[in-house]
Design a protein that fits this description.
Length: 366
């Protein structure tokens, strides 16, 4: 599945390592993975990242930031959600352009725990640390990160907007990396970046020489320097389906390329593990013999899949954007055909439609 959420009651350090290595990440008290995300009615790929700490050396930006901020006091300890940190987070989130969690309680603990107690002592499945930056007695920045056995994941960083010129967001990430490297950790996972959305691009400049991305098609970690447009799964899917759409159009055959509104339905607890379709873009091929097959392209196996799907649920509301299909949550029930080449699947569809038309005409003649 392209999107999954799990709710483990307990998580060993080695288990967190394994999840992170497969492109999973923390969300509250769950752990999730996704390969696609929507921003303002546009679907993008999410590309998971990690830094090789064994080979990491401080870059020029880190050296400059550590020198610029040398007058501040730095401390690390087990995470504790306090009123002081909640207040700082509340101030910070008012200045950002992206949707932010309501509170640290919600972000880290799903609002389940008392804010006066350390996060690691209130039923959290994660071993969470915090780094604090003080200017005198004033807390000006804070960041949270989780530790596994040999891996760490950076969860969030926030700071006082009055200190913006000190680049405290990046500074906190560098502090986390330095701390984890000194602990002997092998990997630091900063989450994902989103090609086409510059908000996440700052992650590409930190530890770039030892930064890796998880290639979905092979499930291998590759140097970020080798990242190419053909490594963007959503774009590949779109191009592959568009090729077939244009081939069908050239022969007068109907097809319609649409984004699928419910590609991330597996995040909804009631819909998890129900076998719903989770591809972000679909080619509807028209009604053939009372069935409207749907074509998808899967970058994981490099193949087209022609599917029969049935409506599973009707949503409470539909997406008014005509580029999206949102009439129903769809569930695949059968695979009609699969192949690697767009020309082959295009010819198969054309032949199938022509045969059905001939059969219909023969029936009419009788």
């Amino acid at each position: 599945m392209f999107a999954q959420v799990q709710n483990p009651d307990h998580l060993e350090a080695q288990e967190l390592d394994a999840y992170l290595a497969q492109g999973w990440f923390r969300m509250g008290q769950t752990i999730f993975t996704t390969n696609f995300i929507r921003f303002q009615q546009q679907i993008h790929s999410t590309i998971w990242l990690r830094i090789l700490l064994d080979s990491y050396v401080a870059d020029n930006t880190q050296v400059k930031l550590f020198k610029r901020n040398s007058e501040f006091r730095i401390s690390f300890k087990l995470a504790e959600i306090t009123e002081e940190k909640e207040k700082l987070y509340s101030i910070y989130k008012q200045t950002v352009s992206f949707p932010a969690s309501d509170s640290l309680q919600f972000l880290l603990l799903d609002k389940r725990n008392n804010s006066e107690q350390p996060a690691t002592k209130t039923g959290s499945i994660f071993t969470t640390y915090e780094v604090n930056v003080h200017d005198g007695d004033r807390l000006i920045a804070c960041g949270f990160f989780d530790l596994g056995a040999v891996s760490a994941e950076g969860i969030t960083s926030f700071y006082d907007p009055e200190y913006k010129k000190h680049s405290l967001g990046k500074y906190l990430i560098y502090l986390k990396i330095k701390f984890c490297k000194e602990l002997g950790m092998q990997y630091f996972y900063p989450g994902y970046f989103v090609p086409g959305n510059p908000h996440f691009d700052y992650k590409l400049s930190i530890g770039n020489e030892v930064l890796q991305f998880l290639q979905l098609s092979t499930q291998t970690w590759e140097p970020i320097q080798t990242f190419l447009p053909e490594n963007i799964p959503y774009d590949v899917m779109r191009v592959k389906l568009l090729q077939v759409h244009e081939m069908l159009s050239a022969t007068g055959q109907y097809s319609k390329l649409l984004k699928y509104n419910f590609f991330d339905a597996n995040f909804v607890q009631e819909m998890r593990d129900t076998g719903l379709l989770d591809f972000p873009i679909l080619l509807f091929c028209g009604v053939i013999d009372n069935v409207e097959p749907i074509l998808v392209y899967d970058v994981r196996d490099g193949m087209y899949h022609l599917l029969t799907c049935v409506p599973a649920w009707k949503p409470f509301e539909v997406n008014s954007d005509e580029e999206f299909y949102s009439d129903y949550f769809l569930m695949p029930v059968a695979e009609i055909y699969r192949c690697e080449e767009g020309e082959e699947i295009g010819n198969f569809l054309i032949k199938l439609k022509n045969e059905v038309m001939k059969e219909g005409k023969a029936t009419d003649d009788h």
